[in-house]
């Protein structure tokens, strides 16, 4: 009996003691421990592997320059295999076991949605670089931030305007994947086409991630005689769809979602990619001749000499730029680094970017949508080239947050 | 549906069906010879595609690539059979089924680790511009896939009928003990059956890569190949071919006529119906084991 | 009280104390391990004891998880109603699968179960309005009833109690005449038939029973994790459960417990080499299949017998 009481007493103390030492977790006098998650296995590994590498490159640069207010950054990375359940498990582990200070998400939308409720509860800061899923920024949560990827609603605004002004007969066919991101892009586009331009898509077809055959969806589109086919999926899917479209005799041009505005689409689709249009999240695509990009790529290759073909891709760049933004937020928070001071630090950021290879970020205490800029591009001569087109409409999105 | 569309779909269906037929063939051959169902066959197809990818960077002419893919595939199969299958060939069926599954997964994970998950592209030997004939578009690669499949099938059928090793394989598949008593080296026959099947699988990977791209998920083809093998009855070579083409056509047409949801379900519905009502397929021979 | 029941109570007390001594994240991991045990126990009854290959065990977990989560989300049913209902649904579907499957064996049965798994996956993905599809389903917070939330430690106790109960029932089933029939069907269906065992009925019941276990495990998993998506219940998960029983020991409840407990902790151990964790898992499976087909339970039995021998010798003095 006495032994049992001792054990129970010990157990009680063990559970209470940590509460007594309540300081900011993840921050010590010389180290900031960040958590990060993304898909490094599974169908979206091309996102997570690149996101992780881009993020790590930025961290290396930051640490080499002395760290943040005297502290170096350490990061713990977890795989989510593009599954929301695993992403949730990863975040739980990062917060509760690894006791990280803040979380950087380089995961896709599909996985990120699994973590939102938990993080809203816990209050730890999560900075989302790549996922565009709406729940990150709406309803407003003071600890959640979105960086490089813009809102699905913003995609909808720009895509709808571009498609409406360029489609002669206003006949637009839409094909999209079923998981979070392509579905959101498609639905946002459809919503804005209707609300702003009174256009309904003449055809809408869905497919599953990494489907290998799009014949039935393409035939549905073909029957509707569209001017353009808007395709929301991933580069591997697009390559097959575009090839099959040509085989079926479809001559319409393709418009693709922003994750496909990337050299990997051209690698996968070869000649069929010629003439494809889309919007890019980064000012220069990897492989472009701009001197800033060449410089950045040279640095990247020094760090990752054995990377497979198709890297670096735009996720390397997004995560790289966003890690620097998160670092800037931590810098602004000052020596007394806590979740609250980080939030204030991030909210003070206006038009900040690490260099010309990134787009500028702006946050405020009313909204945490870092980027609303997209660059229209087209594949010409086997390369993505910018297109001379600018939007003539004001974005609706920030008005929700006033 | 116009006649043109129907023909166009039929071409697509036959093309994809030819791949299923090759996978089914690769499954049926070792099953006939040794009673082992290679659940890892899908990964052999993936391996073939990646071998082709690597070889293409060496700028070798296409026939050489074909030869090398087939050789490497066959050798790989021999190694697997010797090292991993032979020890468990007398183990309960469960062990064999799971072991072949596991071997396939090992190959897939190894490929993923080495090559990453980024999609890569491989060119077909005849380019991708459609040929026009009688108002229909023929993708030259799809035509080549069908022709190649026919060639392989004919070769295999001739092999079983005329070659000594082929006849030995037939004997072993009917009764291994009797064959052994007749002086046939059964172990050697099994090894060759595996080698041929993995070689065919790898070849299928080389054929299909220009169409669906090169990525580690190619192995999921095996599900369709299994359905095709069941349709044909596991022991019939022409049955496997008919089964593969049937699955390809049914899939393609149902996708357009019904819905893409249905198209995904169709092969498995066929599978379940067949397993319940005719597990020995449309061509196979029943195996007296009813309990 | 029988020895089994005594052991069950003892295990429950031990687990309760363990739960008090560790932090929230460890309790979460323990929950996942115990859920794996429940699933493994069910699968072992079907495959290890009754000799029926099943590649779709994870599909029954999916049915349990989705049905119980949807009952909770749409009708507000608390777990103590939604999980038993979900398990019953899973058992029913298991029986429906077992009915045509009873005449199949070996690779044909493996194929049928594989086909069933694919069908369940596709149904979950395609009817996304109901199931959330590949974007997953958020599971409502576990409650005792209406708004009374369950504390993490109590959730742990629920899972522990269910796991102990699952092990206890499985042990009793195996000790019963039905258990003997199951083993007879595995060893020689013909002989069993000749001796008057209703082989087809035994197989069907085995399918339904194992599906019920999986359904409970699925419902608990949804509750513990808070989010479910179809990837969690695919071929990878099914193979993982098979790995548990192969490594632990087929046909033995202790084997299921050992295999599931040891291997579900493995991903944590493998974190430093996490990119290789899939590979390592598969190598372990293959290794055991080739070299240690009787599983770790053999080691456990040795230890147990050695312990009893030592106790006997001590008593004899």
How is this structure best described in words?
The complex is a heterotrimer of chains A (402), B (291) and C (317). Chain A has 13 helices and twelve strands. Chain A is α/β, with parallel strands linked by helices and 402 residues long. Chain A has two domains: 31-150 and 290-371, Rossmann fold (3-Layer(aba) Sandwich), CATH 3.40.50.2300; 153-280 and 377-401, Rossmann fold. Chain A has a seven-stranded mixed β-sheet, with helices on both faces. In chain A, helix 2 crosses helix 12 (314-333), helix 6 (152-166) packs across helix 7 (180-197) and helix 12 crosses helix 13. Chain B has one domain. Helices cover 73% and strands 2% of the residues of chain B. Chain B has eleven helices and two strands, in the order H-H-H-H-E-E-H-H-H-H-H-H-H. Chain B has helices spanning 3-34, 41-56, 62-85, 93-115, 140-162, 164-174, 176-181, 186-212, 221-232, 237-257, 260-277, and strands at 131-133, 136-138. Chain B has a two-stranded antiparallel sheet. In chain B, a hairpin with a 2-residue loop joins strand 1 (131-133) and strand 2 (136-138). With 317 residues, chain C is mostly helical. Chain C has one domain (3-316): ABC transporter involved in vitamin B12 uptake, BtuC (Orthogonal Bundle), CATH 1.10.3470. A two-stranded antiparallel sheet of chain C has the order 1-4. Chain C has a two-stranded antiparallel ribbon with strand order 2-3. In chain C, helix 2 (24-49) packs parallel to helix 7, helix 8 (177-187) crosses helix 10 (199-225) and helix 11 (235-248) packs across helix 14 (277-291). Chain C is globular, with a radius of gyration of 20 Å. Chain C starts with a helix and ends with a helix. The relative contact order of chain C is 0.17.
Considering the chains and any ligands shown, give keywords for the structure.
heterotrimer, B: 291 residues, mainly alpha, 73% helix, C: 317 residues, ABC transporter involved in vitamin B12 uptake, BtuC, two-stranded antiparallel sheet, globular
Average per-residue pLDDT of chain B, rounded, comes to 85
Helicity range of the residues of chain B?
over 70%
Calculate the terminal CA-CA distance of chain B, rounded to whole Å. 47 Å
What's the helical proportion of residues of chain C?
over 70%
Largest beta sheet: strand ordering of chain B: 1-2
CATH architecture identity of chain C: Orthogonal Bundle
Distance between the termini of chain C: 28 Å
Assign the structural class of chain B, choosing from mainly alpha, mainly beta, alpha/beta, alpha+beta, or little secondary structure: mainly alpha
Q: Identify the quaternary structure here.
A: heterotrimer
Could you state the order of secondary-structure elements of chain C as H and E?
Answer: HHHHHHEEEHHHHEHHHHH
- Main β-sheet description of chain C: 2 strands, antiparallel
The total count of strands of chain B amounts to 2
Tally the helices of chain B.
11
Q: Stretches of chain B where pLDDT falls below 50 for ≥5 residues? A: none
- How much of the polypeptide of chain C forms β-strand, as a percent range? under 5%
- Overall mean pLDDT score of chain C? 89
Q: By helix and strand content of chain C, what is the structural category?
A: mainly alpha
């Amino acid at each position: 009996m006495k032994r049992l009481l001792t054990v129970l007493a010990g157990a009680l103390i063990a559970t209470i003691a940590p509460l007594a030492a309540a300081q900011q977790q993840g921050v010590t006098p010389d180290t900031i421990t960040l958590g990060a998650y993304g898909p490094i296995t599974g169908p979206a590994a091309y996102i997570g592997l690149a996101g992780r590498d881009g993020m790590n490159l930025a961290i290396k640069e930051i640490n080499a320059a002395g760290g943040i207010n005297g502290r170096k950054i350490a990061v713990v990375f977890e795989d989510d295999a593009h599954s929301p359940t695993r992403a949730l498990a990863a975040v739980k582990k990062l917060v509760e076991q690894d006791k990280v200070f803040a979380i950087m998400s380089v995961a896709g939308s599909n996985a990120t949605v699994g973590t939102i409720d938990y993080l809203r509860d816990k209050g730890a800061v999560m900075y989302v670089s790549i996922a565009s899923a709406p729940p990150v920024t709406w309803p407003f949560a003071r600890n959640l931030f979105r960086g490089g990827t813009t809102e699905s609603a913003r995609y909808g605004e720009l895509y709808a305007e571009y498609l409406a002004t360029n489609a002669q007969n206003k006949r637009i066919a839409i094909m999209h994947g079923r998981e979070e991101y392509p579905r959101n892009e498609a639905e946002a586009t459809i919503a804005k086409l209707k609300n702003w331009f009174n256009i309904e898509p003449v055809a809408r077809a869905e497919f599953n991630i990494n489907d290998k055959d799009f014949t039935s969806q393409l035939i549905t589109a073909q029957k509707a005689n569209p001017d353009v086919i808007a395709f929301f999926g991933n580069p591997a899917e697009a390559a097959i769809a575009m090839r099959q479209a040509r085989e079926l005799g479809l001559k319409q041009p393709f418009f693709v979602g922003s994750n496909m505005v990337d050299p990997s689409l051209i690698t996968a689709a070869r000649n069929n990619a010629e003439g494809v249009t889309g919007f890019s999240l980064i000012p220069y695509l990897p492989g472009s001749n701009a001197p800033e990009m060449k410089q950045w790529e040279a640095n990247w290759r020094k760090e990752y000499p054995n990377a497979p073909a198709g890297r670096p891709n735009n996720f390397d760049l997004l995560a790289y730029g966003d890690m620097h933004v998160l670092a800037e937020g931590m810098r602004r928070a000052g020596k007394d680094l806590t979740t609250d001071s980080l939030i204030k630090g991030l909210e003070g950021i206006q038009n900040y970017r690490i260099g010309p290879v990134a787009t500028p970020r702006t946050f405020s205490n009313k909204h945490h949508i870092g980027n609303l800029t997209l660059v229209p591009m087209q594949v010409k001569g086997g390369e993505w080239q910018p297109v001379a087109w600018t939007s003539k409409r004001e974005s609706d999105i920030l008005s929700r947050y006033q | 549906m116009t006649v043109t569309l129907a023909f166009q779909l039929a071409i697509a269906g036959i093309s994809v069906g030819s791949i299923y037929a090759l996978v089914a063939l690769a499954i049926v051959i070792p099953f006939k010879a040794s009673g082992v169902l290679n659940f890892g066959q899908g990964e052999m197809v993936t391996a073939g595609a990646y071998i082709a990818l690597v070889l293409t960077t060496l700028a070798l002419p296409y026939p050489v690539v074909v030869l090398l893919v087939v050789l490497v595939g066959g050798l790989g199969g021999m190694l697997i059979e010797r090292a991993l299958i032979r020890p468990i060939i007398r183990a309960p069926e469960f062990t064999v089924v799971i072991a072949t599954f596991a071997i396939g997964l090992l190959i897939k994970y190894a490929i993923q680790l080495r090559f990453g998950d980024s999609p890569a592209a491989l060119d077909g030997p005849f380019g991708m511009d459609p040929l026009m004939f009688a108002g229909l578009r023929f993708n030259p690669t799809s035509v080549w896939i069908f022709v190649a499949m026919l060639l392989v099938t004919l070769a295999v059928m001739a092999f079983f009928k005329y070659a000594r090793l082929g006849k030995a394989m037939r004997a072993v598949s009917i009764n291994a003990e009797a064959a052994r008593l007749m002086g046939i080296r059964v172990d050697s026959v099994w090894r060759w059956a595996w080698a041929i099947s993995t070689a065919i699988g790898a070849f299928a990977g080389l054929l299909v890569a220009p169409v669906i791209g090169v990525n580690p998920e190619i192995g999921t083809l095996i599900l369709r190949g299994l359905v095709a093998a069941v349709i044909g009855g596991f022991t019939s070579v022409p049955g496997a071919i008919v089964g593969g083409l049937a699955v390809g056509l049914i899939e393609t047409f149902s996708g357009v006529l019904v819905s893409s949801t249905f198209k995904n379900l169709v092969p498995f519905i066929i599978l379940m119906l067949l397993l319940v009502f005719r597990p020995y397929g449309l061509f196979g021979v029943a195996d007296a084991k009813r309990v | 009280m029988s020895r089994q029941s005594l052991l069950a109570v003892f295990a429950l007390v031990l687990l309760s104390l363990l739960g008090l001594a560790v932090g929230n994240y460890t309790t979460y991991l323990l929950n996942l391990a115990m859920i794996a045990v429940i699933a493994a126990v069910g699968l072992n009854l079907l495959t290890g004891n009754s000799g029926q290959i099943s590649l779709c065990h994870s599909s029954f977990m999916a049915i349990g998880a989705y049905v119980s989560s949807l009952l909770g989300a749409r009708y507000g049913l608390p777990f103590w109603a939604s999980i038993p209902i979900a398990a019953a649904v899973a058992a029913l579907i298991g029986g429906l699968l077992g009915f045509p499957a009873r005449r199949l064996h070996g690779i044909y049965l493996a194929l049928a179960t594989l086909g069933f798994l694919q069908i369940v996956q596709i149904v979950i993905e395609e009817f996304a309005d109901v199931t959330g599809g590949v974007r997953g389903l958020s599971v409502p917070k576990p409650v005792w009833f209406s708004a009374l939330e369950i504390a993490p430690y109590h959730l742990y106790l629920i899972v522990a109690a269910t796991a102990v109960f699952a092990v206890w029932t499985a042990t009793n089933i195996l000790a019963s005449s039905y258990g003997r029939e199951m083993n007879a069907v595995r060893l020689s269906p013909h002989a069993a038939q000749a001796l008057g065992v209703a082989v087809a009925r035994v197989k069907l019941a085995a399918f339904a029973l194992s599906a019920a276990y999986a359904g409970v495990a699925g419902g608990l998993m949804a509750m513990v994790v808070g989010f479910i998506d179809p990837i969690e219940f695919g071929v990878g998960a099914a193979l993982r459960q098979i790995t548990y029983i192969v490594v632990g020991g087929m046909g033995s409840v202790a084997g299921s417990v050992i295999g599931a407990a040891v291997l579900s902790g493995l991903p944590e151990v493998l974190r430093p080499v996490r990119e290789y964790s899939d590979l390592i898992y598969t190598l372990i499976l293959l290794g055991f299949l080739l070299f240690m087909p009787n599983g770790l339970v053999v080691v456990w039995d040795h230890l147990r017998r050695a312990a009893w021998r030592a106790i006997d010798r001590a008593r004899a003095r």
